């Protein structure tokens, strides 16, 4: 029989019935994409994976808990045969063929009327790569090709100018510093910008990937004074958006964890400028994790507290109840606390925290110069000097440090 190439087409499944026969790992991989497309998904299988059962419990799919019956495909627009029995998959395919309904088979693509492509999405663009599913390991090859295309799209290698987003401001959390730790959405929004307003701790290497015509404002070089500097940032992003530009406010870590992102949102709203938020990986959790230190651990702590250490205990503007912090048994994570760490440690000990409490200072987290200094609360001030600790650093106080470093 003559073999013909596939005819590619994009299925619009929103509000349309799709039947997945089988409740195992293949079904588990396919169902989320169907839900995202708006399909009305019915799963037919005696048993399903816990993940699928969770979707059922959330009302996202319907589960018929029995073996397949021919009538299950009535009024279906699309069918996936994903059981571990070839005879069942074959029957599903036969019934679908009789109903003129396209059917994918997970076990034998040669007897299916449709093949599932390797899919990736970048903004409004959907990339679907189809190979010859009759060939051995074709799915791995098409997935690898899909990934290469998506990497090129995200890096701006292809011109997708007509698809650029409308003017406005997007707040992008860049993550803890390593450029590979920005989210996919964050990188995409950064590459789509006309104007980038960047913090000192944002992943600077990513700015080198921007188009040469993108304007960059380095807010680390703005005149000092926190209030004056923030007012100037607000002015820059608002005026850029009102001038018809897509403005990316590019920050380190997350936008709101001891950042001033919400002040920028308020400024945009007051000026009538559209503003969206792309969260970033937050440093007080990610940096200890990358350094091998959990902020919680079963049987060790039931809570962790993130505290800004930019003001010492006793400062008239401090909002921290240090007596309450000292009484807690869980983990304390200090941000912006290197300068005031000696005073904080002394206060915690004075208020009852054990001076032998282990401490880890993770310097330059996620960067090539990352290092971890181990100490204890009672000698923290001394060790900061001995090891010449400078900002930026995340300070972790609590027994979780000993979980990772029993020697401390």
Mind sketching the topology for me?
Elements: E1 17-21, H1 25-36, E2 40-44, H2 50-57, E3 62-64, E4 78-81, H3 86-98, E5 102-105, E6 118-122, E7 125-129, H4 138-154, E8 168-173, H5 184-191, E9 195-198, E10 215-218, H6 226-242, E11 246-251, H7 261-271, E12 275-278, H8 283-290, E13 304-308, H9 322-327, E14 331-335, H10 341-350, E15 358-363, E16 371-376, H11 380-386, E17 393-397, H12 400-404
Parallel strand pairs: 1-2, 1-4, 2-3, 4-5, 8-11, 8-12, 9-10, 9-11, 13-14
Antiparallel strand pairs: 6-7, 14-17, 15-16, 15-17
Helix pairs in contact: 6-7, 10-11
Count the E strands.
17
- Spatial strand arrangement across the major sheet: 3-2-1-4-5
What composes the largest sheet?
5 strands, parallel
CA(first)-CA(last) distance: 72 Å
State the helical fraction: 25-40%
CATH topology of the largest domain, by name, is: Methyltransferase, Cobalt-precorrin-4 Transmethylase, Domain 2
Global mean pLDDT: 91
Quickly give the structural class.
alpha/beta
Report the order of strands and helices.
EHEHEEHEEEHEHEEHEHEHEHEHEEHEH
Would you state the CATH class of the largest domain? Alpha Beta
Our estimate of the beta-strand percent is: 15-25%
- CATH superfamily annotation of the largest domain: Tetrapyrrole methylase, C-terminal domain
**Count the helices. How many?**
12
**Low-confidence runs of at least 5 consecutive residues:** none
From the alpha carbons, calculate the radius of gyration and give it in angstroms. 27 Å
- Provide the CATH architecture of the largest domain: 2-Layer Sandwich
Number of domains: 3
